[in-house]
Amino acid sequence: MNEATNVVSEWTRQVQNGQKPSSSDLLDHLSVVHEDNAGFTETCAWNCRDTNGKNSYELLTDIIDTTSHFDILDLGCGSGVLLDLCNQRFSSDIKFTGVDISEAELKLARARLEHTDTRIFQGLAQNLDFLNDSSIDVILCHWALTLMDPIIPVLNSIKRVLKNGGIFAAIIDGNGETAPGYNAVNKIIYKYVQKKYPKYGILELGDTRIRTAEGVKNLVEQIFCNCKFDITPALLRYYAKPDVLARETARFFYASYVIPPDLYTNMLTELEEHFASYQKNDIGCFFMAINRLTIYQN
Asked: Helices 242-252 and 261-276: crossing angle, nearest 10°?
């Protein structure tokens, strides 16, 4: 088992005590998780695809219009998967920039993108002072927005650096009720988390308003006054053998990294049994609902 389970941070200590963690506690927790597990979301995110065969990275790159977009920012770029895809898909006329808080992730990103002219910065989404006002055509954010707290300064930073007519697009949580078996997977993982942290789930990572379409709508209307925006749902599927699905879906959930090793092994066994219960020709399926938030700057 390569996963660094039983992560302990100031965030988990606060949760264990039933206290609400602070923003700095969250940053500490994310740093600890990513330090030992850089790139851990890649496999699941890359293999989860919609009925057209597109994964969430590709759904974001679809936003880019090569006739009018020449400065692209990947906010929360992680290990550089989305930036690598953009460099492969688009011409060298487009300038790409990546920002992330994790040096461990950025180390992978720099290695992955060393053959490109992509600019990489370590920094917080709440403070993009190294970028000029109205300097970016498109800001993309893949699964990172839900982890950013406080969220209002993030949205204000995005609004500031976007050009007039610019676009912000993010992959965020969808409605789990629309994804067959998703809530069962979530329930299995959280069952083992709550054996150690009973309050986990009541206290979640990031700002919970980003986790619902209604919460996102209210935030966008508050910050991006009178701007057009849409929230487009999609249902993604990941087909693989049950043991692979168990391993990779567990890796995708931050919650799994706080589980002690013995409980983690039991959780993987239960997840594998879940996926095996409805497999066909030795292949199971993990369903995940997402939303693509798109904001058009006036």
From this structure: 130
**Contacts for 59 with CB less than 8 Å, ≥ 6 apart:** 50, 171, 234, 292
- Reference 249, options 81, 40, 65, 56; nearest CA is 40
Record the pTM: 0.96
Q: Which two tokens stand for residue 172?
A: 């965020």
Phi first, then psi: give them for residue 67, nearest 5 degrees: -85, -15
Note whether 169 and 292 are within 8 A (CB): yes
* Number of separate domains in the chain: 1
Confirm whether 189 is domain-assigned. Answer: no
CATH of the domain at 43: 3.40.50.150
Structural domain includes residue 219: yes
CA 33 to centroid of chain Cα atoms = 14
Q: Which domain holds residue 146?
A: 10-177+209-241+286-296
Residue 1 has a pLDDT of 42
What torsion do the CA atoms of 78, 83, 84, 89 make, to the nearest 10 degrees? 160
pLDDT in tens, 89-104: 998 889 999 999 999 9
Please report the pLDDT score of residue 180 as a whole number.
Answer: 97
236 within domain boundaries: yes
Looking at the domain assignment, is residue 142 inside a domain?
yes
Reported as a single tens digit per residue, the pLDDT across 104-126 is 999 999 999 999 999 999 999 99
